[in-house]
UniProtKB/TrEMBL annotation:
It comes from the Eukaryota. This is TIR domain-containing protein. The chain crosses the membrane at residues 184-208, 339-361, 442-463, 475-496, 508-537, 549-571. Residues 581-603 are annotated as: Disordered. The keyword Membrane applies. It comes from Pyrodinium bahamense.
Length: 603
């Protein structure tokens, strides 16, 4: 990640890729300027050689060539020898006793270090609190109704040693949007497993004569889909009564920071960096309001700096609307004329997926543009007194981490912080979205209506009187098509949307939607050709069809590996419940600090 410095910039590059050597006070026998210049160009450090140099603090100085000037902070660097490290104007230095150089820097940096250390340390270990995700979701997200907290809300959280997910959100986002997004995020995979178990159990009970015969059209959607919906919206309530130990421990500001005791509340706000430092991942409930709020943007930037190896889950709150709409359309297609309406439902499904692909592409463009033009001074804050807290912490962090000169002004520190956010956050968000621009987990969510119906097909297939082996092969083919072929088609649609979304205007939007629709239709049916051939073969040669199914699955998996990559697929399939390991190494007290107040519905 190391990139060369850019002479002429208004301030040094951020720490990620900086070329700013650290110079400390020199004593007798220290290397000369020329010797220093021949060492490693990036992150170079020369240690103090004398025990009486404690008062001199390190400062990053840019390496410049002859005839090149660098303007950074308020320092101007004069031209020198071809390979000399030049001193900023105003730096008190002198050469004596055989070439000793004394560069005395103010010890003010230690003050900022103490400020950072203070906010990264909780006054009491019991302040680090988390809440089971079941308490966040029960009663259809009662706690999300208002940002005003009570003593009873605070008692829902308990002291913990770590936090699985730091829930970052804006209180301006509607309750229903956040709750449904979280339900799908935490419950969709367990609900799918439960639906499969019930559908298979119903099939076995029917085969053993324990359940009566019936009409396939009347019972097509009874088992799998209804069980999945019940599990999706009420599984967390069952966890509460069962006392499951597999619940995720999450941070919600309203529950984990005391809202009625001013002293404890102030301590919790000051210690927000400790919550971030102890969090294994961050789940962002993204809405249009998210990037306009000072505290939410600061939370994201703080976590990325505190946990550079941590995972950020970017969860748009509008996705459940598309999922529920698709589920309703497929579920309520008239039973008696199901096959007559099959093509209509299929075309409507493609159109909805095209809208989803276009919306995801437009959302990504909006997010990336917002971070590319990020400016902390333009964010909104309900109480402007909080802005001073945030800016003071940013300044302390930037100077403590030596991103800027210790004598840099507040404006220069904030400018450097803005550059740091613009350079690092978009790349990490791309990693969260996946290689193609859409996580594999979201593509699976989109196809959930079809997946749960596959299990209903298995439950109802016994009533058709066809060959059982052929029906089972058909079940495997259908499942493979929804789980593997569907995400491939959706990824292709998102790619086309990202390519065309730059064009503006009503006509351009319509043409983009048509292009996405045709792409989805073409890819979906191209991948479906082997499916129909194998389904026909299963009626006569089930064993050969089963071998063909294995080859079909391998080909689709290879495509998914090329699109998403193996690590992303593995994480998407295994995500759910409690994370098994931290997302990355924790950066200790040398890192960014911050605070968060939960004072209004606007922050």
């Amino acid at each position: 990640q190391d990139r060369p410095c850019s002479p002429g910039s208004s301030f040094p590059m951020p720490r990620f890729g900086s070329c700013l050597p650290v110079v400390r006070r020199w004593t007798r026998g220290a290397p000369t300027h020329g010797e220093l210049a021949t060492e490693a160009p990036c992150e170079q450090r020369v240690h103090t050689l004398s025990s009486n140099d404690d008062a001199a603090e390190a400062v990053r100085l840019p390496r410049v060539k002859k005839g090149v000037s660098w303007t950074g902070s308020d320092d101007t660097y004069a031209a020198g020898g071809a390979d000399e490290v030049l001193e900023p104007v105003g730096c008190q230095s002198s050469m004596s006793d055989g070439g000793d150089m004394i560069c005395r820097i103010s010890s003010r940096k230690s003050d900022y270090s103490e400020q950072v250390q203070e906010v990264l340390t909780l006054d009491c270990s019991t302040l680090l609190r988390g809440v089971p995700v079941t308490d966040v979701l029960r009663c259809f997200g009662r706690i999300w109704a208002s940002s005003e907290g009570t003593e009873e809300d605070y008692e829902l959280s308990v002291p913990v040693s770590h936090i699985d997910h730091f829930l970052s959100h804006a209180w301006a986002t509607p309750r229903i949007s956040k709750v449904t997004a979280l339900m799908i995020y935490y419950n969709f995979l367990p609900a799918l497993v439960i639906a499969a178990i019930f559908a298979i159990s119903a099939f076995v009970a029917k085969a053993l004569g324990m359940l009566p015969m019936g009409n396939m059209e009347d019972t097509y959607f009874i088992v799998g889909e209804s069980t999945w919906l019940l599990s999706l919206f009420f599984l967390h309530d069952a966890y509460c009564h069962l006392g499951s130990r597999f619940q995720s421990v999450v941070f919600v500001d309203k529950l984990c920071i005391h809202q009625t005791d001013p002293v404890i509340k102030a301590q919790g706000i000051k210690g927000l960096p400790a919550f971030l430092k102890k969090s294994r991942s961050m789940v962002i409930l993204y809405s249009d309001a998210y990037l306009t709020r000072l505290w939410t943007v600061y939370e994201l930037a703080s976590y990325l700096l505190l946990r550079p190896g941590g995972r950020v889950e970017f969860l748009p709150v509008d996705i459940p609307k598309f999922l529920m709409l698709g589920l309703v359309i497929v579920s309520f297609t008239p039973r008696s004329n199901f096959y007559a309406f099959w093509w209509v439902a299929e075309l409507v499904g493609f159109f909805l997926e095209a809208l989803l692909c276009y919306w995801l592409a437009a959302l990504q463009k909006k997010v990336y543009d917002a971070f590319a033009n990020f400016d902390m001074s333009k964010t909104k804050c309900f109480y402007e007194g909080d802005r001073h807290i945030v800016e003071s912490n940013v300044e302390a962090y930037m100077k403590h981490m030596e991103h800027v000169h210790v004598d840099a002004t507040l404006t220069e520190s904030l400018d450097a912080f803005n550059l740091l956010v613009r350079a690092t956050v978009p790349e990490l968000l791309r990693a969260s979205w996946g290689t193609i621009g859409i996580p594999f987990r979201i593509t699976i969510m989109v196809d959930i209506p079809g997946i749960v119906q596959v299990f209903d097909l298995l439950w109802a297939s016994f009533w058709t009187g066809d060959v059982l082996t052929a029906q089972f092969v058909d079940f495997l083919l259908t499942l493979c098509h929804w789980v593997l072929a569907g995400p491939i088609a959706l990824a292709a649609g998102v790619y086309v949307g990202k390519t065309c979304v730059e064009k503006e205007g009503p006509l351009a939007r319509v043409l983009t939607l048509i292009a996405i629709f045709l792409t989805l239709f073409a890819v979906e049916w191209a991948l479906a050709v082997p499916f129909f051939l194998l389904a026909f073969l299963a009626q006569h040669h089930p064993v050969k069809a089963l071998l063909g199914w294995v080859a079909y699955c391998c080909a689709l998996l290879a495509m998914l590996f090329l699109i998403h990559g193996l690590p992303e697929l593995f994480y998407s399939l295994c995500r759910g419940g409690r994370d098994s390991a931290p997302g990355g190494d924790t950066v200790e007290s040398d890192d960014l600090d911050g605070a968060r107040a939960v004072d209004s519905d606007d922050d």
